[in-house]
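User: Teach me something about this protein's shape.
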Amino acid sequence: MTTEIIELNEALKNQEIYDKWLEYALNSKNLFSMYGAPDFLSGISDFSESVKVVVHRTDAGIIDNIFPYRITEKTIDILSIKHLCINLKKTVADLICCDPYGVIKSENFKRMFEAVLSNDPKICCIYIKSVQLGSDIFKAIMRSTVDSKKLFLHLESGQRDFHTLYLDKSFDDYLSKFKRKERYNLKRQIRLADKASEGNLVLKRIEQCEDVDCFFNCARTVLRNSWKADTKEEEIIFSKDRCDEYFALAKKGILRSYLLISNNEPWAFVLGIQWNGIFHYANIAYSFDKSDFSPGSILFYLMLEDLHAYNKPKALNFGICDAFYKKRFGTARSFDSSVLIMRNSIKSRMISVMAVSARKLKSILKQIIAGKVKIK
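Assistant: First, the predicted structure itself:
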């Protein structure tokens, strides 16, 4: 068995690697698998210089595992309570696809993880954004670190709620899961907004290259009038380079975003991408001055109706974090965690112990504040 680490462009040009990489990505059960797929990464310009690809072969020379990773700076939180924040900034290997593609085998994972850490001494650890707890992948990752003297596993986030929306046979079937009053209120919001728009409230689906500039300009307008106005999201998400990437994704048939527009005025947007039957709800915003009409809820409702009617995906990936709307609209709940595969050292174990202890302390403090735990 052999493990090699090659540059992204080299991997993309190698037909054998590309084909096996795409095959394994398409068969992955991880909802984030698109982000590490070769046809996605080939259109992302800012990844080209920082991404490497790990290729594992059997004794017969057959590729049985592959994954891309990005060398980047990451802040590892030790403790974060209001204004008290203790963290470490480290160089990490960010495993973009969130799972090693291919055969689920702890021995293979151990070889690949050790190879990544050995290849660059500056790398503190391997970061995996989301692994489903209890899954075969998670069990194999755990075994790979237990079986290795060089690796140590740390669950950075602890257990998190993870919500997913699996689309029903029809939109009406999906709506039937809600109580009658809630269905009425959702439709009433749309009627009121449409009336205020004099019947000119429109949902626009963005898929084609010729629509990207319109989406780009409208989304920036919304961001400037949203709760994200004081953040750097506009310059990060809608920079010139990112706009070029949206063009590239549209050419590949991956882009699927939405605009809620009234009389040529944008009210809200969803930056979305659909690949291999998974719709990624990547970024959202709505204009504050339209908040009385609940533009975010209206856009989500109309978007779901369109997702059921046109090129229907099997699932909507909300991404991580436990927001209220994910509980409200999601159909499945599971548990995940972000994972750090660290060098097995005293320092790594100390970082882990401090982080876990701080997380438990934070949980206890929250319960005390909520009155669930009484101090005698």
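Now, about its shape. Residues 66 and 101 are 5 Å apart (CA to CA). The mean pLDDT is 88. If you'd like, I can walk through any region in more detail.
User: That's plenty for now, thanks!
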